[in-house]
Amino acid sequence: DAGVIQSPRHEVTEMGQEVTLRCKPISGHDYLFWYRQTMMRGLELLIYFNNNVPIDDSGMPEDRFSAKMPNASFSTLKIQPSEPRDSAVYFCASSPRQGGGSTGEKLFFGSGTQLSVL
Amino acid sequence: RKEVEQDPGPFNVPEGATVAFNCTYSNSASQSFFWYRQDCRKEPKLLMSVYSSGNEDGRFTAQLNRASQYISLLIRDSKLSDSATYLCVVGILTGGGNKLTFGTGTQLKVEL
């Protein structure tokens, strides 16, 4: 089975440019998460979706960041304009619905997008 | 205070040693607990869940102490392949589901 698929694997861009990261979750998973990882702050939850609906975006750093999930098989994270401090690894993860209505506790991560903003 | 705190390490141990990591969490309402493993330049992967009664999976033992709000991971007979970063993860049930918070990880290096 295909896992969570992210693209691109690496992105190098200049400050001020728009960056779009893409994610295809595992088929049948109801939850999709976007995380950012840096050495200083570790893994930070940016936003997550349940059945394509954004549930909690309190981790989105600022208005320059936006995320969408137009359908169950695709999500994007956009940064516009990008800044050097946005440089990090961005992970997308999905999880299946579990009994009792809680999120699936096992997260399946994609391979991540290494973003460098110069 | 961070929601989830871990000693970053690195822990350098010889092959065959027993090593233990601790993790503390700040929110007493936390309801679910996990250890994830992350290899260098790879994505995190679930290692094991942590239950109040403690649980074991081969050489790995996880324990939870709710009163003191800490979680531990014990690795026995460590192997070279155990070298990785171990992430402590704590979940809180919210209106939107189980929100997971990751610690910054503890790095383990197993040496010959």
Question: Can you offer a commentary on this structure?
Answer:
The complex is a heterodimer of chains A (118) and B (112). Chain A has no helices and 11 strands. With 118 residues, chain A is an all-beta fold. In chain A, strands 2, 4, 5, 6, 9, 10 and 11 form a 7-stranded mixed β-sheet that branches. In chain A, strands 1-3-8-7 form a 4-stranded antiparallel β-sheet, with no helix packed on it. Chain B has 112 residues and is mostly beta strands. Helices cover 0% and strands 59% of the residues of chain B. Chain B has strands spanning 4-6, 11-14, 19-25, 32-38, 44-50, 55-57, 60-65, 70-75, 84-94, 97-102, 106-111. In chain B, the strands form 2 sheets. In chain B, strands 2, 4, 5, 9, 10 and 11 form a 6-stranded mixed β-sheet that branches. A 5-stranded antiparallel β-sheet of chain B has the order 1-3-8-7-6, with no helix packed on it. In chain B, strand 4 and strand 5 (44-50) form a beta hairpin. The relative contact order of chain B is 0.34. The model of chain B has no long low-confidence stretch (mean pLDDT 92).
Strand and helix layout:
The complex is a heterodimer of chains A (118) and B (112).
Chain A: E1 5-7, E2 10-13, E3 19-24, E4 31-38, E5 42-50, E6 53-56, E7 65-71, E8 74-79, E9 88-95, E10 108-109, E11 113-117
Parallel strand pairs in A: 2-11
Antiparallel strand pairs in A: 1-3, 3-8, 4-5, 4-9, 5-6, 7-8, 9-10, 9-11
Chain B: E1 4-6, E2 11-14, E3 19-25, E4 32-38, E5 44-50, E6 55-57, E7 60-65, E8 70-75, E9 84-94, E10 97-102, E11 106-111
Biggest beta-sheet profile of chain A = 7 strands, mixed
Specify which chain pair forms the largest interface.
Answer: A-B, 22 and 23 residues
Low-confidence stretches of chain A: 99-104
- Structural class determined from secondary elements of chain B: mainly beta
Q: Could you give a short account of the major beta sheet of chain B?
A: 6 strands, mixed
Class computed from helices, strands and strand pairing of chain A: mainly beta
The coarse overall form of chain B would be: globular
Discrete helix count of chain A: 0
Mean pLDDT of chain B: 92
Cα(first) to Cα(last) distance of chain A is: 36 Å
Tell me the quaternary state.
Answer: heterodimer
* Order of helix and strand elements from N to C terminus of chain B: EEEEEEEEEEE
- 3D shape of chain A: globular
Strand content of chain B: over 45%
